[in-house]
Amino acid sequence: MIDQIRGLHHVTSMAASARTNNAFFADTLGLRRVKKTVNFDAPDVYHLYYGDEVGTPGSVMTYFPFPHIARGRPGTGEVGTTLFTVPEGSFGFWSERLTQAGVEGLKTGAAFGENRLYFSGPDGDGFALVEAKDDPRAPWTGNGVGEDHAIRGFHSASLRLRDEGATAELLKYMGYQQIDSQDGVLRFGILGGNGADIIDIETMPNINGARLGAGSVHHIAFAVENRERQLEVRKALMETGYQVTPVIDRDYFWAIYFRTPGGVLFEIATNEPGFDRDEDTAHLGEALKLPSQHAHLRPILEEQLEPLEA
């Protein structure tokens, strides 16, 4: 069994408009944009990262905004809902803030003994806030949301699958334990994880497969401390029969990828070197940072990429 994984590292999704995406996560949700760069494989498309002050693994939501991309079709074989923690008693603040911002899909609920506030992102993305009594993670408060209400980081993510069996066994192999079940949803967690250490599996045998597009999660990434631990995980997965990519340098972390039995794309990402490797902490996410192989495209990209601020 793998014991190097500490919880989530980041969640990466698709969007249609970079400016709308930036306004939603920075202005409405109050997260910090910690990096403004481009897609390694499509440099004419941004890769935007939002999180806490330094982009701590377990707090980072990232997006590929493809202009004019069609909206995705929800279904099985994908991440369903991404959940963030907020302090206990802050739902009144968030309900008012999200309503004033015109956010859709707003409703309250409860699961596993936790209060939830569900809402949709600009492209129909599925999100929820979870009230947490004792989340020690420090929030980012620089975008107008005070410490008493600010998002701490990820709480969990749900996987929508036609059959939970093989993926449930994979999670157990990755160090997760089944800690609960409710209304057909299986809950897995890592004891002593990084706070973003819960995965729920929703089994939907009669639902069609998802179609990737705006509002869809492209992949979900799990955190390991460093490259040594990552190589240990890669070796273990390959010995179990998974087809895992070579290690890929993503500038701010190293990554490996593999497709799960349920169809979801998993990534294992390192906590090192972090988002401050090419910007000081005070100015994270301000300048356009380009991977070295695309540096020569800067004049073109600066002219073509959509300005993030109106």
Automatic annotation (TrEMBL):
One Pfam family this sequence matches: Glyoxalase
Positions of the VOC domain: 7-132, 153-271
SUPFAM superfamilies the record matches: Glyoxalase/Bleomycin resistance protein/Dihydroxybiphenyl dioxygenase
Upper classification of the organism: Bacteria, Pseudomonadati, Pseudomonadota, Alphaproteobacteria, Hyphomicrobiales
Species of the source: Pseudorhizobium tarimense
Name of this chain's protein: Glyoxalase family protein
Domain annotation Cyclic nucleotide-binding: ranges: 77-138
